[in-house]
Design goal:
- With 401 residues, this protein is of the alpha+beta class.
- The chain has 10 helices and 19 strands.
- It has a single domain (7-400), classed as 3-Layer(bba) Sandwich (FAD/NAD(P)-binding domain), CATH 3.50.50.
- The strands form 3 sheets. Strands 1, 2, 8, 9, 10, 11, 17 and 18 form an 8-stranded mixed beta sheet that branches.
- Helix 1 (19-30) runs parallel beside helix 7 (311-331) and helix 7 runs antiparallel to helix 8 (339-368).
- The longest helix is centred in the last third of the chain and has 30 residues, at 339-368.
- The chain binds flavin-adenine dinucleotide.
- Residues 15-21, 38-41, 59-61, 120, 144-145, 173-175, 179, 199, 236, 277, 279, 298-299, 306, 309-312, 315 line the site of flavin-adenine dinucleotide.
Length: 401
């Protein structure tokens, strides 16, 4: 039985120090809220700055201009070393089963770039440096959340080491398998895609041309995301379970051969690969993001297919809206746990998150379909969109928003 320590009081208790939890703590801490962040893991150390294949995080995201603007406003973007950030100004998407293709270029919408690719751990570390400079934010590492119970002032949280925190608002930013979500009984709708994704860093024989490459294969989508080294990309290769097992077990030379045959002839050629990892793909959406004095953000509320490397953009948008609603509550003299502001947060975010999840699901199903009619339809669809300048610009403006 763990020994119980004295209770520490705070305004907002954030569980999870990933991109979502740390950006919320930074946003609220800068507004003078007292925030405590718990994470079950140890404090991350500075990420390596080298350019060997093993020096890159295989977890990368394509941040949209809106996410970048949010991180800039927090003073965090400026802390990410510029030589680890890769702007991309084009996307090439094609159907490996047919002749459908679509090309997006930043100059079509007169934008300097479509987004920037950044390693997850670079964003986490930049956030950490910002948050550690804020006097009213406390970070507690190696403290996995164990239990949550109602207390007169809100919620009482206990870690597995027996430390206790009291807070008026508890935010679950603890990722796809959220303990907060589980402890407060917020039900989810979830389904498995029957796929796993292989991630890793790949060296190319030529430049990636600051382009994201995305092939839709029968067995699942394969994306190449450009890194700041012009001859290296991060891959996210989603595969049906059976194929995944076979491909993941291949030795590097055979793996590269398979990768190149999946990419040919549209994309650059892969010549070497660093360490690889796999993770199962599940779509999971909490039916409600909030309860009395509790809110879920980012992957804790919704995890989506990594098809377009978009995961964290939805999470950062959740954080931005929750911060706005909490500031509005404070200005209006409401408690931070006020269900009016929490429900407004939920309303504002759920529609957009559901729309994005439905779009990813549609893509996934459309391209997973082996029926010849579906094949022709999607090829015509891709080519049609590619040829309609206005429609393409419409898609891109939505992707940049
Ligand atoms: C291997 C891998 C590769 C990925 N690659 C991509 C990609 O290429 N593109 C993409 O868009 N998305 C990718 N994703 C998904 C993407 O990383 C997530 O969308 C994003 O990181 C979510 O951020 P988050 O802050 O919500 O959660 P997380 O980054 O999962 O952070 C959650 C934090 O909560 C902590 N935590 C968990 N449980 C507890 C507890 N009980 N008590 C205290 N702390 C706890 C964890 O230690 C962690 O620090 C990948 C995910 C994985 C696992």
């Amino acid at each position: 039985m763990a020994e119980h320590h004295s209770l520490m009081e705070t305004d907002v208790l954030v569980v999870g120090a990933g991109v979502a939890g740390l950006s919320l703590a930074t946003a609220l801490g800068r507004e003078g809220f007292a925030v405590t962040v718990l994470d079950g893991a140890s404090r991350p150390s500075a990420p390596p700055g080298g350019v060997d294949l093993s020096d890159w995080d295989f977890r990368v995201s394509a941040l949209t201009p809106a996410s970048i603007a949010f991180l800039q406003a927090l003073g965090v973007w400026q802390q990410i070393p510029s030589d680890r950030v890769a702007p991309y100004d084009a996307m090439r998407v094609w159907d490996a089963d047919g002749n459908g293709h679509i090309a997006f270029d930043a100059r079509d919408v007169v934008a300097p770039c479509l987004g920037q690719i950044v390693e997850n751990r670079q964003v986490v570390y930049a956030l950490l440096k910002s948050v550690e400079a804020l006097p009213r934010v406390q970070l507690c590492w190696d403290e996995p959340l164990e239990s949550l119970s109602r207390a007169p002032s809100g919620w009482q949280a206990v870690s597995s080491g027996g430390r206790c925190w009291g807070a008026s608002l508890c935010v679950g930013a603890d990722g796809a398998r959220s303990r907060v979500r589980q402890l407060v009984d917020l039900p989810t709708r979830e389904w498995s895609y029957g796929q796993s994704a292989i991630v890793g860093t790949v060296a190319l024989s030529s430049s990636h041309q600051n382009t994201c490459w995305q092939a839709f294969l029968r067995t699942g989508p394969l994306a190449l995301l450009p890194l700041s080294d012009p001859a290296k990309v991060a891959i996210v290769w989603s595969l049906d379970e059976e194929e995944h097992g076979q491909v993941a077990a291949l030795q590097d030379p055979d793996f590269l051969r398979q990768l190149n045959s999946a990419l040919a002839p549209s994309a650059p050629v892969a010549v070497a690969i660093g360490p690889r990892a796999s993770f199962p793909l599940k779509q999971c959406h909490a039916m409600d993001y909030v309860r009395e004095g509790v809110a879920l953000v980012a992957d804790a509320a919704h995890s989506i297919h990594p098809l377009a490397g978009q995961g964290i953009n939805l999470g950062l948008a959740d954080v931005a809206v929750l911060k706005e609603e909490l500031l509005a509550a404070r200005r209006g003299g409401l408690l931070l746990s006020s269900s009016i502001s929490l429900k407004r947060y939920q309303r504002r975010r759920k529609t957009e998150n559901l729309a994005m999840m439905a779009a990813m699901e549609g893509f996934k199903r459309g391209f997973g379909n082996r029926h010849p009619v579906a094949l022709v339809a999607r090829n015509l669809g891709l080519n049609f969109v590619d040829q309609q300048g206005w429609l393409k610009r419409w898609f891109m403006r939505h992707a940049l928003a």
